[in-house]
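The instructor's notes for this session suggest beginning with a concrete chain rather than abstract definitions. Hand out the sequence below and ask the class to guess, before any prediction is shown, which regions might be ordered.
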Amino acid sequence: QVQLVESGGGLVQAGGSLRLSCAVSGRTFRSYAMGWFRQAPGKEREFVAAISRTGGGTRYADSVKGRFTISRDNAKNTVYVQMNSLKTEDTAVYYCAAGDGSSYYSGRYDDWGQGTQVTVSP
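After discussion, reveal the predicted structure:
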């Protein structure tokens, strides 16, 4: 099975920036579409961003479009999300997810990390 480990979460003031990383095990990273999701207390998990297997395609939730950028480094088996102009509404646990190529379009993923906490203060 695929192992995913998120890192980079923490405390940041509104208007600031943060970059999250997700390290993926194995040597088949290039076969995975990757996504970022988040979940705030008492809320359902929601889609944030996705990137295709080659990195040629990206998708974003309307709430983060223009502020967040997803990218991947196949040589490092790592996917990133750069988060700029952070708002208090962005406070959540952020999860990295891996799936096959269809996950990029469907939003359904097979493997998930444990999550990393992002807290945006006023």
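Then share the key points. The CA atoms of residues 43 and 56 lie 31 Å apart. The longest strand covers residues 92-99.
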